[in-house]
Amino acid sequence: MEKYIPRRPMLMSPAYKDYLWGGTRLNDEFAKNIDSDIVAETWECSTHPDGPSIINSGEFKGMSLVQFLKIFPECLGTHPRKICPDTLPVLIKFIDAKKDLSVQVHPDDEYARTHENGQLGKTEMWYVLSATKQAKLVYGFHHDIKKEELYAHLDDGTIENYLQKVPIKKDDVFLINSGTVHAIGAGALIAEIQESSNLTYRLYDYNRVGKDGKKRELHVEKAMDVANLKAIENPRQPMRVLRYKKGWASELLARCKYFQTERIILNTETTHEMVDFQTDETSFQVFLCLGGCGTIIGDDFSLSIFKGDCIFIPAGSVAFKIHGNAQMLKVSC
Known about the structure:
Elements: E1 10-13, E2 15-17, H1 25-28, E3 41-45, E4 54-55, H2 65-71, E5 90-97, E6 103-105, H3 109-115, E7 124-131, E8 136-141, H4 147-156, E9 163-167, E10 173-176, E11 182-184, E12 188-195, E13 201-204, H5 220-226, E14 243-245, E15 248-255, E16 260-267, E17 275-277, E18 285-297, E19 302-306, E20 310-313, E21 320-332
């Protein structure tokens, strides 16, 4: 008998992190209803062991995405980034930076495999949802710097003078390749798409202390191993072209060997028609709703989506329609 493969879109429920730099906006503005005074990150679509997502609709409600993909690995698709049969190759987050994040760097896949027990490295992209007038990000160094110089600046606390700080605003896009020294600055609310990894090497953390009253751990030696110490050009916003169709528009935000991210602007309220969607066998897709609301409608199901919701769509999905007025990110591999 042919194996049953579920093909309907599924609402996800996130894991969360209460890192000391986080705020309250994900609860206040995205209705996450998480029982914590601080919600720094929500891991919206994740099979990472440090924060797996839970299915929150349909016949598999209450099951982790990890368990689901172990049973139905076909739902990942046939794409070349399928790193193992039951593991999502990406991790999708919301990040609320009330305070500055640490200055950090991520390893590439090769270094992570060799030095971190076969884990993945991390290339990531940020889409800025909102930012205060003062908000900035750290993106590499102003000029080439030698390891011994960097050690000295870390020791005497002058490292911030040598970091390239870039003002940011709503709707900006940044691709952060592994090896790039970086940090999200205070006042930024961001959607992040990244490799499925939680490897972060802290280079500098403003001498902050954690919940235990001790300074947070740094990973200077590993950071030095993987960091790009060459000057990096001030990042420019990529050329973006909106492509219009009846009831919706889309634009490519980022494409790399790990993932592709598009922004979808849905507005069927004036067309009186619904937009048709369906994934092929190549890749799953993830919809991350950034604002507005809508309804996903199939032959025998419907699913309401609101600001902050995340929808996992299996590869080879059933045909479905979307109606509403919303902005979303669409992620695939």
